[in-house]
Design brief:
Helices cover about 65% and strands about 5% of the residues. By secondary structure, it is mostly helical. Strands 1-2 form a two-stranded antiparallel sheet. α3 packs across α4.
Length: about 150
């Protein structure tokens, strides 16, 4: 486990790798955000739709936990997405006081187009990699995926 308590001075290989990873992920993430299909959706709204696509239907409270936002914020986000026709609210099967949020077919199609656009953009960047770099990227992808979901 890297010891990052010493600030900007990195004393070992792991600290240096963590710093490089942080920088690269942030830069790449910012660039990927610009490859959106629907500019009217905020990154948070896109993230909520992505969570629904990955995890399935959920209550607003469950979504708030998964997205690391406060429940009142998630209630507003869900209302915006519902108004745009991207989610629907249905009665909770076990608790009448709650609702379950599900994505609509329109949201599924928009997310698929967004993934396609981002994949094309990322693939065009990766054309500049040599075979050894591609091998390293293929090996790193599952590790990065695991980190993203810890």
């Amino acid at each position: 486990m890297p010891d990052l308590s010493h600030g900007d001075e990195f004393e070992n290989e792991n600290d240096s790798a963590v710093n490089a990873l942080r920088s690269a992920v942030m830069r790449l993430g910012r660039r990927l955000k610009h490859q959106r299909v629907d500019e009217s959706l905020s990154p948070t709204e896109m993230s909520v739709l992505g969570t629904l696509a990955r995890c399935g239907s959920a209550t607003p409270g469950e979504l708030a936990r998964k997205e690391h936002v406060q429940p009142p914020s998630m209630t507003r986000i869900v209302a915006l997405l519902e108004a745009k026709g991207l989610v629907r609210l249905e009665p909770h099967p076990d608790d009448r006081r709650q609702k379950v949020v599900s994505q609509t077919e329109e949201a599924e199609a928009m997310l698929e187009e967004s993934r396609r656009k981002r994949n094309v953009w990322l693939a065009s960047l990766a054309e500049g990699l040599d075979e050894d770099e591609w091998a390293k990227l293929r090996a790193a992808a599952p590790v990065l995926e695991k980190l993203a979901h810890l």
